[in-house]
Amino acid sequence: MSSKNVFHSRLDDSDSISDIFELVKDAVRISIKKSRSGLMLGITELGSNSNGFVGAFYPVGSNIIIMNKTPLRRIQETNPSLYKPYVFHVLLHEYLHTLGILDEKVVRFMSTEISKRIFGESHIATQMSLDFSGFIPNTTYAGLDFEQPKTGEIELVDNFDKSNVTYIA
Questions:
Q1: What is the Cα–Cα distance from 114 to 61, expressed in whole angstroms?
Q2: Quick one: pLDDT at residue 144?
Q3: From CA 116, how far away is CA 4, in angstroms rounded?
Q4: Measured between alpha carbons, how far is 115 from 123 in angstroms, rounded to an integer?
Q5: Which three-class secondary structure state does DSSP give residue 160?
Q6: 167 within some domain
Q7: Greater pLDDT, 169 or 105
C-alpha cells in the first residue's frame, strides 16, 4: 500500500478530532521533519459574521489551538463528507503556526505542499488547501491580531495530543 493510500485510509478511518490530529502530526513530521508536543485543543463558539467565519486560531506563544464550533456543526449538518478533510486542513494550518511559522502565506503554501505529498492532488484536503472558499464559502483566516471573543466557554478535547502522553502506573 502506498503512503498516500495509508494516509487516505487513516483519515477515512479516524474516529475523532484527536485521531485526525495524530495524522496531521505524522504528515508534518514526514514532510518537514518538525514536531511539537504538549498541545491542547479547545472548541468554542466563535460564530460568524458578514465577512464569514474563522475556522480556528492559535494564540501565539500558547500551547492551545482554538477551533470554532460553528463551521464544525454546519459541515456535519450540510455536507458530512467534508468534515474530516476540513478538520485535517484546519488543524494542519494551525499546527504549522504552533511550530513557529507565523506568516499566513507561508503556512498556506506549506499546507498545500504537505497535503499534496500525503494525499495527492485530487484529495479533498489538498483541494481545500488550494481554495478553501470553493468548499466552504465565507471563510477567513485569523491574523496575528485576531482576538477571541470574550463570551463563551472553551471545551477542551480529551486525549488531543495523545501520542505525546505517557502515564506512570
A1: 24
A2: 52
A3: 9
A4: 8
A5: coil
A6: no
A7: 105
